[in-house]
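Extended Data, panel c. Modelled sequence:
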Amino acid sequence: MLDGEENLPPSLDAYHAKLIERLGIGALADILTPLAAGLAVAREPLSKTEILQLLLFMDRVEKDETELLERALLGLSGMLSTAPDPEGEVGYRLFDQSLREHILVNPEMTSPAKRARRAFADLAEKTDPPPELRNYLLRCGMDHLLEVDRKQEAERLLLDLDHLYAMNQHEVEEIRIYRYWERLGGENRAMAYLASVDKTLERQGDEDIFPKVELVSNLACAAYWTKISVPLAEKILVAKKNKLGHDHPDVAQSYNTLGSAYSNKGKYDQAFEYYEKALKI
């Protein structure tokens, strides 16, 4: 009778090791599936540190299991390629788009892919995500939220001008922001920017106040949001005059924006008036 204290013969020990391997049991096998699913769901190559944070968040590894991650990446090496991520680190991705599509529709991977999508969306919602994933989430978090239909959370983040500005600083351009709003209901939903801009302009000590509110004003003009583009530009113009003076170059920029807003509404006389004011500064 075995009570767990005996030393197994080498042949029997090897048999058990093969049995565990064949059944897909063990720490390595436990992370291969979520790793493949995470890379299939990811919107850009992920570095090792980003992958580790994702698997930590999904409770699939421990903090000190970096060697296990190395083994997992090696185990999947036949289906992976490397490419620089936007931070210049070595990133990992599936080697072909067709493989990604296959994984996402494969019945065996349906649940792992759902868990990976949910994990990315949960991370995107967090006000304090892991620092290693922050830049990725600024660039791609909105896509992950909308992918799982979390429109309320996506709208909340887009209306947070600090978050919106951080997204823009990480290469999320106005056209992408506009497309997000199109999925959320367009200008009717974006009307809430009027309150967001008011709240931001009331703050003290933030050197980036004007760039943040101007991002929204420029977005409104570029998107032809004629209901809010003029009031937004007017609010910002008044705030700049009060803080910077009437002859500051940034005030001229706001005159131009206000002129464009009126032009989009077909009010060309008012547009011309503000373009002229800009030229006089």
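Residues 131-147 form the longest helix (17 residues). This feature is highlighted in the accompanying rendering.
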